[in-house]
Amino acid sequence: MALLLCLGLTAALARGCLHCHGNFSDKFSFYRHHVNLKSWWVGDIPVSGSLLSDWSQDTMKELHLAIPAEITREKLNQVANAVYQRMDQLYQGKMYFPGYFPSELRAIFREQVHLIQNAIIESRIDCQRHCGIFQYETISCTNCTDSHVVCFGYNCESSAQWERAVQGLLQYMKDWGAPSPCSLISPSFTCLEPPHLANLTLENASECLTQH
């Protein structure tokens, strides 16, 4: 399990992720403006229009992530292309029978949420393939600016490598000088200091780092 170092960004402020993609505005503007051509039943039009207008805000409400919503540009492109492909296919059809179009929009929305969840979490999990401090570039879903995630990987092949990784973590936190409310960062981790490293297991380290 990878440890995410808090960088002061919170998921609570995020509006979504797909809206950070370069083609989002044009794509969804087209979808909204042509929604009245997709259903025989007039009642489907306002429902579908609302789904499209609230897409970004509703996405974040459904993500339920305990970590900041930050996604790599590569994964964002993959999610966006998958969503646009399904949406374009839906819009290629003629008018649909009552209830079908908004139902399909909801299905695409749910798939998109699942794809974003997986993309963000997979990047965190990939951290454990490294030993020690690791950093990767992301896009912040809060404001669509370039950001980065710093994490601590446990995939060390020797006790000496593990000790260097822990020392690197301690030095990183010292250099960062992270203040409260970053609960995962503390100015003092006695369980990770040199006298305790010899008998320190990965499980104990994880427990230590999450208790502070």
From TrEMBL:
GO cellular component, one term: nucleus
Family, similarity comment: Belongs to the Izumo family.
Keywords: Signal
Encoding gene per record: IZUMO4
The name this protein goes by in its record: IZUMO family member 4
Signal peptide positions on this chain: 1-16
